[in-house]
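Summary for the funding panel

The consortium committed to producing paired sequence-structure records for every protein in the target list. Below we show the first two records in order, beginning with the earlier of the two.
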Amino acid sequence: MKSILTLLAAAGSFAAVAIAQTPSYYVIDLGTLGGGTSSFANYVNDNRFIAGDAGDANGTQQAVVWWGPFLIDLGTPGLNSAVFGIDATGSLASIAGEIATKDPNNENFCAYGTGLECQSFLYSRGVMTQLPTLGGNNSTTGNVNSKGEIAGIAETGTKDPDCPTATTFSGTGPQLYDYEAVVWGPKPGDIRQLKPLPGDTVGLALWINDNGQAVGASGTCANSELPPLAFGAHAVLWDPDGTPHDLGNLGSTVLNMALGINNQGQVTGASALNDQAIPPQGHHAFLWTSATGMQDLGALPGDVASVGAAINDAGDVVGTSLDGDGNPSPYLWHNGAMSNLNDLIAGSINSSLFLLVPSAINNSGEITGFGVTEAGDLHGFLAVPATWTLSDHHVLPDESDASASGPKARPALSEHAAMLLQHFAGRSMGLR
């Protein structure tokens, strides 16, 4: 059997070939830290560096990076942490995590429920450097682009009586201060506030492309939500000079969020269909372009909601579709059609996973996210495009390299996995 490293090298050679038809995939279970049972793959770049987090033996979420067969623990600045972006060289990573300092207002900006301050960090060459806020105690981060710019959210020093005074659906709160969308870098210590739309008071940025365009949302502290759920009244695109643009909506200004933008300026995210939309129902994934505006991508058959989590330069979208009970199914939107990613799995390389939530797709069509094992645990995955023909002269895994398929039915979650999925409610809905 070929090693995972050999498989990844082979996958890189054939994935660069354009795939006209809906592709099939081999799935690699990324595993966990020693003693831990959970992991989440949050991002994959074009050189297959994978950013995420994994639980250790104590249940603490550690910031980790996968490279080939290696799982690298970056440590944590305090308690729980995660990597949400990594540059093409693997030398710069954006981390959000709790520090050891108790938040003076018992805010839970990181949604872990510990009341510790949440901070953003740039990780480079083994050193974590804390990123500045806008006068508040907390911040959280999105991805990092090729210029070393990081999208994120930073708390201000402005108290807002409209902010939620109790714990919210996704685990954040109480919240006392406003927060704004920001871009850190490219120079150390740089922070640039992205103004919300006129009339709005808070903003969130979670993705920035290589052209310096950032996307997210803006609204008020009363109608917006921090990650992991992450939404506002308006889905927003910011130009490189910070000018905000309202991307419109699919029927309401209750719940809207732009979550990913590619280097062509195409945007994906989620938008409410009506004013009664309450997660996990009543919102759909969208694709926005400057030429067509916001297009409703729908949901998988039988489902009631969906989210567009990420988009690559080919315009392929990955995200989550949800049934009426909030159970997530992963999808790939390719050439105008939405397919359940579990139906596209040709085999699993080192274990069987039932995929739940995809988080990212790179320009080779490789997809990361997390799924559930047959034992009921949540594990990060990498899905690499597979081909069933030998005429293209690529070195491919043969049938002995992979099981015939993953589980046919969704395995029951372990008690710990169910707690994690509930804790990271936004991840289960694909919103972070």
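The next record, for a separate protein in the list, is shown here:
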Amino acid sequence: MPKQQPLVLVANDDDAMRDALQFSLQLENFEVRVHRCSADLLADCELRRADCLILKDHMPDMGGLDLVRCLRAHNIRLPTILLTANATPGLQRRAAEAGIWLVLENPILDNALLEGVAAILDHGGAPGDRAAT
């Protein structure tokens, strides 16, 4: 039986960014499910099967940090990459405390996102094994 593609879930309210993320991840042979908001991601029946989450820091319904906290409150601990417009030291500290694997600032340079996802998959995505950067 062929091995299942790694599943990456994306929550981002920016249509262009969501489409770009989906396209670049699919080019790398990931299964990708995209969502316009946190509530849609929470309702995804494949949530517990996900290998990685990519979340936008600020969304109208619930930002990425709050979403990770909500998931943890329900014993769902998934390796997460947080995308933000301003990766301040305070945000990086809060992200690390929430168990977020990696913080990336937009615009995402080079292959930072794909390298982050690959590192999560190579490492097994154990939460808390890597601080936000």
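Regarding this second record: DSSP finds five helices and five strands in the chain. The chain has one domain: 7-123.
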